[in-house]
Design brief:
Strand content: 25-35%
Number of helices: 3
Largest sheet: 5 strands, antiparallel
Shape: globular
Order of helices and strands: EEHEHEEH
Structural class: alpha+beta
Helix content: 25-40%
Radius of gyration: 14 Å
Number of strands: 5
Length: about 100
Protein backbone atom coordinates (compact mmCIF):
# COMPACT_ATOMS: atom_id res chain seq x y z
CA UNK A 1 0.00 0.00 0.00
CA UNK A 2 1.33 3.44 -0.93
CA UNK A 3 0.22 6.92 0.10
CA UNK A 4 -0.41 9.52 -2.59
CA UNK A 5 -1.08 13.25 -2.83
CA UNK A 6 -3.28 14.64 -5.60
CA UNK A 7 -3.94 18.29 -6.33
CA UNK A 8 -7.28 19.58 -7.58
CA UNK A 9 -5.99 22.24 -9.99
CA UNK A 10 -9.29 24.13 -9.87
CA UNK A 11 -9.45 24.87 -6.13
CA UNK A 12 -5.93 23.71 -5.07
CA UNK A 13 -7.28 21.23 -2.51
CA UNK A 14 -5.01 18.25 -1.83
CA UNK A 15 -6.28 14.66 -1.64
CA UNK A 16 -4.37 12.32 0.65
CA UNK A 17 -5.16 8.73 -0.23
CA UNK A 18 -3.73 5.24 -0.35
CA UNK A 19 -3.67 2.54 -2.95
CA UNK A 20 -1.81 -0.60 -3.88
CA UNK A 21 -1.78 0.70 -7.48
CA UNK A 22 -1.54 4.49 -7.50
CA UNK A 23 -1.52 4.88 -11.29
CA UNK A 24 -4.74 2.84 -11.59
CA UNK A 25 -6.28 4.86 -8.74
CA UNK A 26 -5.42 8.16 -10.46
CA UNK A 27 -6.91 6.90 -13.74
CA UNK A 28 -10.06 5.88 -11.88
CA UNK A 29 -10.35 9.24 -10.15
CA UNK A 30 -9.76 11.05 -13.44
CA UNK A 31 -12.73 9.18 -14.93
CA UNK A 32 -14.82 9.64 -11.77
CA UNK A 33 -14.02 13.36 -11.43
CA UNK A 34 -14.23 14.07 -15.15
CA UNK A 35 -14.76 17.81 -14.71
CA UNK A 36 -11.87 18.22 -12.26
CA UNK A 37 -8.28 18.70 -13.37
CA UNK A 38 -6.07 16.66 -11.00
CA UNK A 39 -2.31 16.21 -10.76
CA UNK A 40 -0.40 13.51 -8.92
CA UNK A 41 2.09 15.38 -6.72
CA UNK A 42 3.78 12.65 -4.70
CA UNK A 43 3.69 8.95 -3.92
CA UNK A 44 5.24 7.61 -0.71
CA UNK A 45 5.94 3.94 -0.14
CA UNK A 46 3.89 2.78 2.83
CA UNK A 47 0.46 3.46 4.27
CA UNK A 48 0.45 6.81 6.09
CA UNK A 49 -3.04 7.87 5.06
CA UNK A 50 -4.69 7.68 8.51
CA UNK A 51 -1.72 9.32 10.23
CA UNK A 52 -1.68 12.16 7.71
CA UNK A 53 -5.46 12.61 7.86
CA UNK A 54 -5.16 12.94 11.64
CA UNK A 55 -2.18 15.31 11.33
CA UNK A 56 -4.08 17.62 8.93
CA UNK A 57 -7.56 17.17 10.49
CA UNK A 58 -7.96 20.92 11.09
CA UNK A 59 -7.43 21.51 7.36
CA UNK A 60 -9.93 18.90 6.12
CA UNK A 61 -12.40 20.31 3.61
CA UNK A 62 -14.35 17.11 2.93
CA UNK A 63 -13.57 13.40 2.76
CA UNK A 64 -9.90 12.95 1.91
CA UNK A 65 -9.49 16.50 0.57
CA UNK A 66 -7.51 19.09 2.53
CA UNK A 67 -6.78 22.79 2.19
CA UNK A 68 -3.03 22.61 2.76
CA UNK A 69 0.02 24.15 1.13
CA UNK A 70 1.88 21.32 -0.57
CA UNK A 71 5.64 21.31 -0.11
CA UNK A 72 7.34 18.00 -0.88
CA UNK A 73 10.15 18.44 1.64
CA UNK A 74 7.71 19.42 4.40
CA UNK A 75 5.45 16.45 3.65
CA UNK A 76 8.39 14.02 3.67
CA UNK A 77 9.55 15.48 7.00
CA UNK A 78 6.05 15.11 8.48
CA UNK A 79 5.87 11.49 7.30
CA UNK A 80 9.30 10.77 8.78
CA UNK A 81 8.16 12.21 12.12
CA UNK A 82 4.91 10.21 12.02
CA UNK A 83 6.64 6.89 11.47
CA UNK A 84 6.29 4.76 14.61
CA UNK A 85 9.98 3.83 14.56
CA UNK A 86 11.24 7.40 14.10
CA UNK A 87 11.08 8.15 17.82
CA UNK A 88 13.48 5.36 18.72
CA UNK A 89 15.62 4.46 15.72
CA UNK A 90 18.57 3.21 17.78
CA UNK A 91 16.53 0.25 19.07
CA UNK A 92 14.74 -0.45 15.81
CA UNK A 93 15.13 -4.12 14.94
CA UNK A 94 12.21 -4.22 12.52
CA UNK A 95 12.72 -5.56 9.02
CA UNK A 96 9.97 -3.30 7.67
CA UNK A 97 10.87 -1.30 4.60
CA UNK A 98 8.82 1.84 4.98
Amino acid sequence: MDTYFLKNNINSFIKIGRSSNVSQRVKGLTRQLQFVDITLLLTIEGDYESLLHDHFKEKRVYGEWFDIEFNKEDILSIVENLKPSSNNTSNNTSDDNI
